[in-house]
């Protein structure tokens, strides 16, 4: 019995020590858990920051790809599309092509070959090809992943306008060369004839030769003036002075200047423009438009026919029509004939012009806030050109506004020199034609 307290004391000491050891272990575990929790929190914060950075980066790259004019897409080695921007979606029919094979959503062997060549040659390539009448310049880049997978990034730029501009530039060089060659050759031959020792010209013949030289010089001057006019109009340097003007007065003056050319082909020009029509226009430039259109009608009309000019009200506008008995404009060329340097008759005769006349007309009419177009000749009714200009105020009276009429007929600054244009226009002969 005496040993029981000793035993109990020893057991208590052992239990106390074990409890102490356990408490220390629990404290150590708590410290470890707390440290691990802190580390987990740090890792969680790092993960959140990494995710935010990743999302921001993706958003930035996505925004860059979506606002880019270039088409961008990424394909794997099997030709499956993994990503593309909104611009590329247009060639896929404005729908997502992610997950589809390129050959299934786009019929372009050139693009497929470009991707294959890039993968096989492990090199970046650049190529130009056509998809659905649109010319693209494409560039490729290979991206290799750590696991061995490879992707091809393709960027495509629509260069159709550049191709058309290059074609227009080539046409310009060809047209200008052709137009300059004819008058220069004639001038040279005439001058050589004037100074032949074996055949001294008489005064009357000399005067006629000088007239022919002047005529060919006018043709060269007209050509250079058309180029200058078009350049100034398209660059925004042309100034249109729009004032109320009598439409009849403008039409009559344009007809008067071209009557000598019409008489040479035994043509009559008939105007049915009501005298009450007053339009808001730059009279000098509107005469230029009418002169170009009437000149084309004279050029294409058969002899002993009539060219008819009419006008009609269309709401706030006045529509002017020029109708001739010529071959007219084919339906498929109604829009193209207003392009710079475009000529419907590719066979060309010596007086087919530069292809600038209708382009200048289009710019002038659009600067007046109007429209110009050609009616197709599907019904065989001849050439038919129409344009619209804004009506002047309904209360405007030509007779009571001499100041406005005088201002309207004053030379307009901005489209080259209006006085020079009128002088050139009045001296232009039938041989110095301009294109339709």
Write the layout of secondary structure elements.
Elements: H1 4-67, E1 71-76, E2 81-84, H2 86-89, H3 102-105, H4 109-121, E3 126-131, E4 134-144, E5 150-158, H5 160-194, H6 203-234, E6 243-246, H7 247-264, E7 268-272, E8 278-281, H8 283-300, E9 306-314, E10 317-323, H9 357-367, E11 372-375, E12 384-390, H10 402-408, E13 413-414, E14 416-417, H11 418-427
Parallel strand pairs: 7-9
Antiparallel strand pairs: 1-2, 1-5, 3-4, 4-5, 6-8, 9-10, 10-12, 11-12, 13-14
In short:
With 436 residues, the chain is α+β, with helices and mostly antiparallel strands. The chain is built from eleven helices and 14 strands. Strands 2-1-5-4-3 form a five-stranded antiparallel sheet, with helices on both faces. A five-stranded mixed sheet has the order 7-9-10-12-11.
Looking at this protein, list some descriptive labels.
436 residues; disordered C terminus; Heat Shock Protein 90; alpha+beta; Beta-Lactamase
């Amino acid at each position: 019995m005496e040993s029981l307290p000793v035993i109990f004391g020893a057991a208590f000491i052992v239990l106390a020590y074990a409890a102490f050891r356990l408490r220390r272990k629990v404290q150590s575990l708590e410290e470890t858990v707390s440290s691990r929790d802190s580390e987990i929190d740090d890792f969680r914060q790092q993960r959140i920051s990494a995710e935010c950075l990743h999302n921001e980066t993706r958003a930035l790259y996505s925004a860059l790809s979506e606002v880019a004019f270039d088409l961008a897409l990424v394909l794997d080695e099997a030709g499956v599309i993994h990503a593309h921007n909104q611009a590329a979606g247009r060639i896929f029919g404005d729908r997502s092509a992610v997950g589809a094979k390129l050959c299934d959503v786009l019929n372009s062997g050139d693009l497929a070959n470009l991707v294959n060549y890039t993968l096989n040659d492990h090199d970046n390539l650049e190529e130009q090809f056509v998809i659905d009448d649109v010319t693209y310049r494409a560039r490729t880049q290979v991206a290799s992943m750590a696991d061995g997978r490879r992707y091809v990034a393709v960027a495509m730029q629509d260069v159709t306008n550049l191709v058309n501009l290059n074609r227009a530039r080539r046409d310009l060089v060809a047209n200008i060369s052709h137009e300059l060659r004819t008058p220069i050759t004639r001038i040279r031959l005439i001058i050589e004839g004037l100074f032949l020792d074996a055949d001294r010209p008489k005064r009357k013949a000399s005067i006629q030769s000088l007239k022919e030289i002047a005529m060919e010089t006018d043709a060269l001057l007209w050509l250079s003036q058309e180029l200058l006019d078009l350049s100034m109009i398209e660059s925004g340097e042309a100034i249109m002075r729009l004032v109320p003007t009598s439409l009849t007065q403008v039409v009559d003056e344009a007809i008067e200047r071209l009557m000598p050319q019409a008489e040479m082909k035994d043509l009559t020009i008939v105007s049915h423009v009501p005298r009450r029509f007053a339009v808001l226009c730059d009279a000098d430039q509107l005469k230029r438009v009418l002169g170009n259109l009437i000149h084309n009608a004279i050029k294409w009309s058969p002899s002993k026919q009539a060219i008819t000019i009419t006008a009609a009200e269309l709401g706030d506008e006045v529509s002017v029509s020029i109708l001739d008995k010529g071959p007219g404009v084919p339906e498929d060329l109604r829009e193209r004939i207003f392009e710079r340097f475009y000529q419907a008759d590719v066979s060309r005769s010596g007086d087919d012009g530069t292809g600038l006349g209708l382009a200048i007309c289009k710019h002038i009419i659009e600067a007046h806030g109007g429209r110009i177009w050609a009616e197709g000749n599907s019904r065989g009714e001849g050439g038919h050109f129409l344009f619209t200009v804004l009506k002047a105020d309904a209360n405007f009276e030509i007779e009571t506004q001499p100041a406005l009429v005088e201002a309207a007929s004053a030379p307009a600054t901005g489209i080259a020199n209006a006085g020079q244009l009128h002088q050139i226009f009045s001296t232009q002969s039938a041989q110095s034609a301009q294109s339709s």
